[in-house]
Amino acid sequence: MTSTVEGILANYAGETPGVIGNLRRLMLHGRLGGTGKLVILPVDQGFEHGPARTFAPNPAGYDPAYHAKLAVESGCNGYAAPLGFLESIAHEYAGRIPLILKVNNSDTLGGPESPISALTSAVPDALRLGCAAIGFTIYPGSEHRNVMYEQLRNLIREARDVGLPTILWAYARGKMPKEAETSVDVIAYAAQIACQLGAHIVKVKPPTGVVWQEAAKKAYESIPTETLEERIRHVVQCCFEGKRIVIFSGGASKGYDAVVDDIRAIHAGGGFGSIVGRNAFQREHGESLKLLSDIMEIYEGA
Ligand code: FBP
Questions:
Q1: Residue nearest to atom 17 of ligand 1 (CA)
Q2: 203 in catalytic set
Q3: How far is the centre of ligand 1, averaged over its atoms, from the C-alpha of 92 (Å)?
Q4: Do 16 and 157 meet the contact criterion of CB atoms below 8 Å apart?
Q5: What is the pTM assigned to this prediction?
Q6: Architecture of the domain delimited by 3-300
Q7: How many CB atoms are closer than 10 A to CB 85?
Q8: Per-domain residue ranges for the chain?
Q9: Protein residue with least CA distance to atom 12, ligand 1
Q10: Do residues 77 and 32 make contact, with C-beta atoms less than 8 angstroms apart?
Q11: For residue range 265-301, what is the model confidence (pLDDT) as tens digits?
Q12: In testing the pocket of ligand 1, which one of 39, 47, 48 has its CB within 8 Å of the most ligand atoms?
């Protein structure tokens, strides 16, 4: 099983031992440790969407300790959150589960047209909190995207120098309709940009069958994109032919079967795993544990 992990890490051969070590740490941790698959719990939605929308469905989640405990109990590979949440739990959880500091965040109180996240913490915070990686969001599609790409260039360099890998949330958003944000061509493009920017792990939304860019329509005539499995395979191919780890987000809360169907398709299409937030922590505790367990069971399958 660990040879699978070493095979993946061979694709990062140019990296510093610190970065490789932390990627190994993420891939060897938790129930999926050694399989080359990852399930990460992200809880930045209190910042990104607001507290009531995020935590009212399961009020236990207003407490930061709830999420760290859920991530450990369920056997996740890692737990990602902004500075405040991590500061309140790191003394108890650093070393018990790989922590990922989300170093930029945006709220939904401003306009949707030109999104850009604020730098809300920094590499020294990640080190101080005992993190295994930093997380950063880019919005390809925003008129501010080049600012984000340039911020990231410096940040990846700084994080790499101290041995921390960067996980990139690549969300197309800005001057495009909602259906474009998750279209297969735009998701694949966002994933490729993330890899080109030097991300060690890329995170995107599962793509729909829509092809949005006029200029890409011809190319997509010969790319199979009918099923989610095919679209996942295409996104993996766009992440350097699978040489960069790409994982897929869970999205807004939905029914158990819909979540599980998506995970089956992600697994079948060669995706490296999931980063599932609301679909996990917005459920009642026992149900979250069951769903995360069922998700991990799918990823354990050959
Ligand atoms: P979810 O599983 O809850 O979608 O979490 C993954 C995530 O990337 C979060 O880190 C982030 O806050 C959220 O998605 C953003 O979702 P949206 O695009 O709907 O604002």
A1: 251
A2: yes
A3: 25
A4: no
A5: 0.97
A6: Alpha-Beta Barrel (3.20)
A7: 23
A8: 3-300
A9: 45
A10: yes
A11: 999 999 999 999 999 999 999 999 999 999 999 999 9
A12: 48
